[in-house]
Design brief:
- This protein is mainly beta and about 325 residues long.
- It contains 2 helices and 22 strands.
- Strands 2, 3, 6, 8, 9, 11 and 12 form a 7-stranded antiparallel beta sheet that branches. The protein has a 6-stranded antiparallel beta sheet with strand order 1-4-5-13-7-10, with no helix packed on it. Strands 18-21-15-16-20-19 form a 6-stranded antiparallel beta sheet, with no helix packed on it.
- β2 and β3 form a beta hairpin.
- α1 packs across α2.
- It is elongated.
- The two termini are about 30 Å apart.
């Protein structure tokens, strides 16, 4: 599919997919978002990136962590899995002990109480403790897939469960771990690589449901969005007007409504950011009127401006960015 087609998909879907609206997902069977790892707004992660003992979001909608060891995550593109070209996410233990390395996606919608669901993915691993787990957060029940043989080839892992009446949110754990999400004997170099992660209603693991890049991006931006900086000054930023000589009032309106009112952040300190048109660092930034649809930013300028003129705040280095986060 061409990027033009994908952008067209994105434009149409942005108006249709709204907070928690199950109807907007009508006809879609896969409740996992980004199960083929198309979207990675926080970075490329094309080489191994260290993960921490506390869960952190790397690839969109997946937060990773290790316990009692150390580990890395990497996103690999153009991988052939079960005869199809796709992306994969790989977790690798970089120390041996009794521990685990895992990724988890939390399913926001609580529509699974009393329903039968099936989780599936194609997994390659050298560990016989590689598995998928459905955790019913409200009922505190774990259901494990079949474990990988550890033979170093792709195998279809899957599990089916009829959820309790108080299942609540489902947490989908993937990685090297015990059947109850606990620790296992794990060696330095043990790895878990998966593709085509899917959660669907019913008792049968069907073929993976591919979504366009544009549709997947819209789904991901309900939880997280980033304005990436670059070395071309003022090409990307947040626009506003001066309501006082030293005060810029900027507004970020979200193309896709977020799950909830997000937190606003930026890399480094405000001194790393500039105010157009004079390319000077702002003295301070603070937010107000934060909602799922937009937020406003008060920017204190070090230079006196004419009230009513336009301005914008920008991150003018490739390492800089602004972001909003409404992850679960």
């Amino acid at each position: 599919m061409t990027k033009a087609r994908e952008n067209s998909d994105y434009t149409g879907l942005a108006a249709d997919i709204v907070a928690g609206d199950t109807a907007a997902r009508a006809g879609r069977k896969n409740w996992i978002i980004n199960g083929d790892f198309q979207i990675s707004q926080r970075g490329a992660f094309s080489s191994a990136t260290s993960i921490t003992a506390s869960p952190v979001y790397y690839l969109d909608r997946f937060r990773c962590k290790h316990h009692n060891i150390s580990g890395t995550v990497v996103r690999q593109t153009n991988q052939t899995v079960n005869g199809k070209v796709t992306n994969t996410m790989m977790l690798t233990a970089t120390a041996g002990s009794n521990g685990r390395v895992e990724a988890v996606q939390i399913i926001e919608d609580e529509v699974f109480n009393g329903q039968t669901v099936t989780i599936s993915a194609w997994v390659i691993s050298n560990s016989a403790s590689a598995r998928l787990i459905i955790h019913q957060n409200g009922a505190n029940i774990q259901t494990s897939s079949n474990a990988h043989t550890g033979g170093g080839a792709y195998e279809l892992l899957k599990a089916t469960v009829t959820c309790a009446s108080n299942a609540g949110q489902l947490h989908i754990y993937t990685g090297i771990q015990a059947a109850g999400t606990g620790n296992v004997a794990i060696a330095n170099g043990d790895y878990f690589k998966m593709a085509f992660l899917q959660l669907e209603l019913g008792s049968v693991a069907t073929d993976f449901e591919h979504r366009s890049y544009g549709e997947t991006l819209v789904d991901c931006q309900r939880y997280y969005r980033r304005i990436q900086g670059n070395t071309l000054n003022f090409t990307q930023g947040i626009n506003g007007l001066y309501n006082s000589a030293n005060g810029l009032l900027a507004s970020w309106d979200f193309d896709t409504p977020m799950r909830a009112a997000p937190t606003f952040g930026w890399t480094g300190t405000v001194a790393n950011y500039d105010i157009e048109p004079y390319d000077v660092a702002p003295a301070a930034m603070s937010t107000f009127a934060v909602s799922a649809d937009s937020l406003c930013i008060n920017v204190t300028d070090n230079t006196s401006r004419t009230v009513g003129t336009a301005g914008r705040i920008v991150a003018d280095t490739a390492a800089g960015y602004f972001d909003v986060d409404a992850e679960l």
